[in-house]
Design a protein that fits this description.
By secondary structure, this protein is an alpha+beta fold. The chain has three domains: 139 residues, no CATH class; 89 residues, Orthogonal Bundle (Helix Hairpins); 145 residues, Histidine kinase-like ATPase, C-terminal domain (Heat Shock Protein 90). It is built from ten helices and seven strands. The strands form two sheets. The protein has a five-stranded mixed sheet. The chain has a two-stranded antiparallel ribbon with strand order 1-3. α6 packs parallel to α10 and α7 crosses α9. It is rod-shaped. The protein starts with a helix and ends in a 7-residue tail after the last strand. It holds the Pfam family HisKA. GO terms for molecular function: phosphoprotein phosphatase activity; phosphorelay sensor kinase activity.
Length: 402
């Protein structure tokens, strides 16, 4: 506020000074003009009085009347060689001064306005820097921060209230997510223990099964228990990702090794269906991130492809690297996605038209969350040959922790 008053005082002083200079210059010019004109008339009257004193009275009366004297006087002056460029009642410096003084006054006004606007710009820059620092301190948790130099106190107070409110809401949301993750961890622990016990019991029962039909029923129950354990683990991972408490390593690893690890759980299933699988272009490419969780994410995508690829089909993974990102393209020879499903493929618990009855709709969502956490993107679309295509890009910069 003090800087603003100072700037206003500079502007007002400049305007007042310019007006005073205009008035002073006008008065000086008027006075000098009257003096020079009177001196010129006095010189002419003195010349007439000396040369022809007997005609002085008539000349003065004629001068007062002023009828046609100017043209006649100009003609007489020219006859005797007194043109405008030869003789003048006004000194040479007077003309220069008459132009220089207003010019100087204009310069003073422009200089005053220049100083004022320069001050305003500096004030605006100073205010911006102060508000930026103010916001930074508040975001760091210094809620008792006060604006210095009273730079826009009303705006500063409004920003302070808004930022504090947003930060408190964010902290509450983070606490709620962390509580959810903790609750999910407790729940998963509670579920895993009886699920493991059930699995062990089923294994014992299978050994004691009296007939083949009972054994097959037990095998199906084991599959359901395994599905339940996988579902609980996926839900726990998603909740930890949402809460930002899932710790990911930042370590360089070989891309081909990670893809091979991701596909291992599905090798037997692909062999049973006669699916041809191949990886191209991954040799020599390295990524920086968490090997295990990247393998988990790609495993979920490959699992989706295996489930939707018919017998004797094929799944291809193509990789390419450039200075900006590494791209991995996973394509299968299935029937592709329904157009209605494409916008929702990575939504949590979404089950498309071709989903299996055991699908919970969280595999692709989990893969997307992990890939984005690793500073990547994933999209899906139908290929030109009609199959499904997943396009993953990992950008070459450090992952931003949340």
């Amino acid at each position: 506020m003090r800087d603003k008053k100072k700037g206003n005082r500079i502007l007002i002083c400049g305007i007042v000074l310019s007006i005073c200079l205009f008035v002073l210059a006008g008065g000086v010019i008027l006075h000098l003009s009257e003096t020079f004109i009177r001196n010129g008339i006095a010189d002419m009257a003195g010349a007439v009085g000396i040369a022809a004193p007997e005609q002085l009275d008539g000349v003065m009366h004629l001068y007062k009347s002023g009828d046609g004297l100017r043209d006649a006087g100009e003609e007489i002056l020219r006859q005797y060689g007194y043109g405008r460029d030869v003789y003048s009642f006004v000194p040479a410096w007077y003309g220069a001064a008459a132009y220089a003084i207003p010019f100087c006054i204009i310069l003073v006004m422009l200089f005053s306005f220049g100083l004022y606007w320069r001050h305003r710009i500096k004030e605006a820059e100073k205010r911006t820097v102060a508000l930026s620092g103010y916001l930074d301190r508040i975001m760091e948790g210094q809620y008792d921060t006060l604006m210095k130099d009273d730079t826009g106190s009303a705006l500063g107070d409004s920003i302070y209230k808004a930022v504090v409110l947003l930060r408190e809401e964010r902290e509450q949301a983070q606490k709620a997510k962390k509580n959810l993750a903790d609750n999910m961890a407790d729940l998963s622990h509670q579920l895993k223990t009886p699920a493991a016990s059930i699995g062990l019991t089923l294994s014992l029962l299978k050994k004691k099964a009296w007939d083949e039909e009972t054994k097959q029923d037990i095998i199906r129950m084991e599959g359901q228990v395994g599905h339940l354990q996988h579902l609980v683990g996926s839900m726990l991972t998603l909740s930890r990702l949402d809460a930002g408490v899932l710790k990911l390593e930042e370590k360089e690893f070989d891309l081909e090794e990670m893809l091979v690890d991701a596909v291992q759980p599905f090798v037997r299933q692909m062999e049973e269906k006669g699916i041809c699988f191949g990886i191209q272009g991954a040799d020599g490419i390295s990524l920086s991130g968490d090997f295990g969780w990247c393998s988990e994410a790609f495993g979920n995508i490959i699992k989706n492809c295996v489930e939707h690829t018919p017998e004797q089909g094929n799944i291809r993974i193509a990789c390419r690297d450039n200075p900006i990102y590494t791209e991995i393209v996973i394509q299968d020879s299935g029937r592709g996605f329904d157009e209605a499903d494409l916008p929702h493929l990575f939504e949590r618990f979404y089950r498309g038209a071709g989903s299996s009855k055991d699908s919970a709709g969280i595999g692709l969502s989990l893969a997307k969350s992990i890939i984005e956490k690793e500073n990547g993107t994933v999209t899906a679309e139908n290929t030109q040959t009609g199959g499904a295509g997943f396009y993953i890009k990992f950008y070459h910069c450090h992952r931003i922790s949340t």
